Structure formats: C-alpha cells, structure tokens
UniProtKB/TrEMBL annotation:
This is Uncharacterized protein. Gene3D superfamilies: Aldolase class I (3.20.20.70). The keyword Phosphoprotein does not apply. Pfam families: NMO. The lineage of its organism: Eukaryota, Fungi, Dikarya, Basidiomycota, Agaricomycotina. Keywords: Flavoprotein, FMN, Oxidoreductase. It comes from Dentipellis fragilis.
C-alpha cells in the first residue's frame, strides 16, 4: 500500500483495466490503490481529475471482489460503501493480511476454519476487527445461544456470541468447553464472545460477576454489555482485568444501545470497541421506545463523528443477507442476527419452541412487559420490555383482564405443556423463516446473499 504522499498522478499513465487492477501484486493494482488511498487530496490535483470518475466506477464495480486491496476513502460520493472495502493491518494486532485477505489476530483459527467453502471476504471495519469474512454477528440469546451455536457461526465465517447459562458456573464452563472443542482451540484465545446483562451483574452478591470472570479467564475475544445501569463499572472491570493479566491484546467490548442519546453516551463515556444499535423490531429485550432500526441506524450515524466512532452493528428484525447489505450501504459495519439462528440444530431452544417459530405468521410478534410478568423475570431497568410471539395470556392482560387470573391460567397451561403458555422471544420477520438449517450453512447463505445484493447495487453507479 502506497503512503499518503502518493498524489495519484501516475494512474493517468495507465489503462484502467478492471481485471488487471484488481489482481494483487501488479503495478496497476498498486497504482490504483494508491490513488484511491489519497482521493480526498488527489481530487484537487490536475493529474487526478482526469481519472477520478473512472476510479470511482471501478471502485463500485469491484466492491466485493475477492482478496482485493482497496482502502477506506473519506469524503467521496461512495462514502456509505467505503466501509465495505477495507483491507489494512488489523487494528488490534497491527498484523498485515495474509494471502486470503484475512488479518490474523491472537485468537487462532483452526485449520479447517472456513474450509467448507471458498468465500471471498466482505471488507468492513467489523470483519477486520474480528478477523472474519462475513459481517454477521450472532446475538447472545439467553437459553438459545450456547457454545455449539456460537462456535458454528464463527466456523461459518461470522462471529458467534453465547449467553451465559444462569444455572451455575460449571454449566457455563461446559458451554465454553463445547465451543473450544468445536473450534479445535484447546488453550488459546477463544474467537467467540459472551453477552452479559448489566443489571444482573449489578445485583448485590451477583453470581454473574463470577461468570464474567470465567469468560475473561477463557480469553474470549469479546464481551457484550446490555441493559445496565452502571455500564462504566463493567467496562472498567474488563479493562482492568486485561491490564492485570498482561494480555497482548484487549478484550473487545460491544455495547448495546436503543436510542441516539444512549449511543452518544456510550461512545463518549464508555468508549466501546463496537456499538450495537438495536431497533424496535428486535426479539428479546430492548428499549421499549427504540425507533425502527433503519431510523435508529441513520440517526446514530449522523450523530457520531465518522472518523473516530467505533464500528456500528445493526440489530433488530434482520433475517436475510439483503437486509444486511442494505445496512452496509447505509453505513453500518455489519449486522446482528438472533431469531434466524433460533431455527438451527445447534441452538439450545427446545423442539417445541422451534415448531412454534416455524408456525409463526405475519404480525406474530409483539412487544410487552407482560412476558416478564408471566415468566417472573422482573428486575429489568426502566423502559425495557421484550418482543416475543403473541400468546393469549399477554393479549388478555393488555385487554384489561385480571393479571393474577391471567398468571394463574398461564402457569397451569405451562405445567400441562400447552404451547400457548410458553414465552418465546423472537423478532419481526420470524414468519419468514420456514426451515431448520445448520448455523454454518446459514452464515454461508447470508454471505452469498450479501455479495449478490452489494454487486447489484453497485451497478447503479457503474454506468455513471
């Protein structure tokens, strides 16, 4: 990669052949990369003006070409796409990409990593940060995202989070062992993450603090923090642990937000490595007043400084690769999917819950605090509720029925195995999922779909 002093002028002396410039280690390839690297300044030079439009056309056409070297370019008409074509040293380790375009970090990948398919890398700030190929992250879903599911998403080319089991530290260790076994990483950094609910960590004498400690001792690559009243405390806890243990890399911290104000506070005060914007469509718990995801992502991107803000992940109601591609072009670095991965063999969800999801119809989900009342899982911060499949007990409560009677009826139905007496958290779009499929296959399908959509959208400018 040529440095900042390159003025782009040499590119005028070369024919801009698409095939040759996107072939690594050729002179024309290096010339165009240098020109793209310096576009903001090069646009002002006479030499570069003559090639500027051609560079942008080629930039758009080869947005997701495998193994190509293009750099993040600011202040140009394709800025929303610039985040999708990043190929630079890893921001954690400073190591250069290998021949596959993957930047190694201290979390070693097994020999069979990605071996099931020869996928190109979709270059975003999140795929660089995590050293993965697909900008898809598995949500840490309590009772669903265990070691098997998290590891299979990672093996597929995305990044998996597990949610700690709240039935003892040994059960949690079991899930981490499952992940290690699947990833074939016996004693090194673990390329998955673990999600924690801040309010559970903050409970007096909370056993969840021990689970956080276990996760850090296992050198998980990332910790996800959500729904806390004192998030700064846990960010400091994680950073202090890294410092005291003398790690040569930091544990990445993901912070979930549901409003623009929360996003601004998180970036300014907590300084996360990744920001997760969760829209109203999301399954499970989140901010009741959160706007729709598209609106939220747009607002957050507009409110945060583009040059220094952390990578932004979009979360909420995302089911397919077309949606992921849409958020990439909007400016997000990737997407979080939860509900889609509930219908996998690897999820901890029971078969009855999976069948209920498969039977979901349009408008089958709703947001309500009654899910927690029925489940007796109260204690969430003010303003937080959950989205799940519609059940009669919740609708009756909303219609004004006696809450105690509704709870009693629900409890009796649950004892009898009544499918209508089970709380199943799921996001908007659940009705679009019609089959159970291995998690790794889902990631591959998402990857191909993302590339197809990005290539299709790039043609809108390729004829300019």
């Amino acid at each position: 990669m040529m440095g900042d002093e390159y003025d782009g002028g040499d590119a005028a002396e070369h024919e801009l052949d698409a095939e040759e410039i996107t072939s690594p280690n050729t002179d024309k390839h290096r010339v165009v990369c240098g020109a793209l690297e310096s576009l903001p300044r090069a646009r002002q030079t006479p030499q570069a003006q003559s090639i500027y439009s051609r560079l942008l056309r080629l930039f758009a056409v080869h947005l997701v070409t495998p193994g190509r070297v293009l750099s993040n370019v600011t202040e140009h008409p394709l800025k929303p796409w610039s985040a999708c074509v990043l190929h630079r040293p890893n921001v954690v380790t400073g190591k250069a990409p290998d021949s596959r375009g993957i930047t190694a970090n201290t979390h070693s990948r097994p020999a069979h990593y990605f071996s099931s398919t020869d996928m190109s890398t979709i270059y975003t700030s999140i795929t660089r940060l995590l050293s993965v190929r697909t900008p898809v992250v598995l949500a840490p879903m309590a009772g669903a995202s265990g070691g098997a599911l998290a590891s299979q998403v990672t093996l597929g080319g995305g990044f998996g989070f597990l949610a700690p089991t709240y039935d003892g530290s040994e059960k949690f260790r079991d899930q981490l062992r499952i992940a290690r076994s699947n990833l074939n990483i016996p004693a090194q950094g673990l390329p998955i993450g673990v999600g924690f609910l801040g309010w559970k960590l903050e409970t007096p004498d909370s056993p969840h603090v021990e689970l956080l400690k276990i996760a850090l001792e296992n050198q998980v690559q990332a910790i996800w923090l959500a729904c806390g009243n004192d998030t700064a405390r846990w960010v400091e806890y994680i950073r202090k642990h890294d410092k005291e243990t003398g790690k040569d890399r930091k544990t990445l911290i993901f912070i979930q937000v549901g409003t623009v104000d929360q996003a601004i506070t998180a970036v300014n005060e907590f300084k996360p490595d990744v920001l997760v914007a969760q829209g109203n469509e999301s399954g499970g718990h989140g901010i009741a007043a959160a706007p729709p995801l598209f609106t939220l992502v747009s607002q957050v991107l507009a409110a945060l400084p583009s040059g220094t803000a952390p990578p932004l992940l979009a979360a909420g109601g995302i089911i397919n690769g077309s949606q992921v591609a849409a958020y990439l072009t909007l400016g997000a670095s990737g997407a979080v999917l939860g509900t889609r991965f509930l219908l996998t063999p690897e999820t901890l969800y029971s078969e009855s819950r999976k069948q209920a999801l498969l039977a979901a119809k349009t408008n089958s989900t709703m947001r309500s605090g009654m899910f927690d009342v029925l489940n007796n899982t109260l204690g969430w911060p003010s303003g937080v509720d959950g989205r799940g499949l519609r059940i009669s007990a919740v609708e009756e409560a909303h219609a004004g029925a006696n809450i105690d009677e509704v709870k009693q009826k629900f409890a009796e139905g649950a004892k009898q195995g009544d499918p209508g007496s089970i709380v199943i958290y799921a996001g908007i779009g659940a009705e679009s999922i019609n089959e159970i499929k291995p998690a790794k296959d889902i990631v591959h399908e998402l990857h191909d779909d993302i590339i197809e959509r990005l290539k299709a959208s790039s043609t809108l400018l390729s004829q300019a």
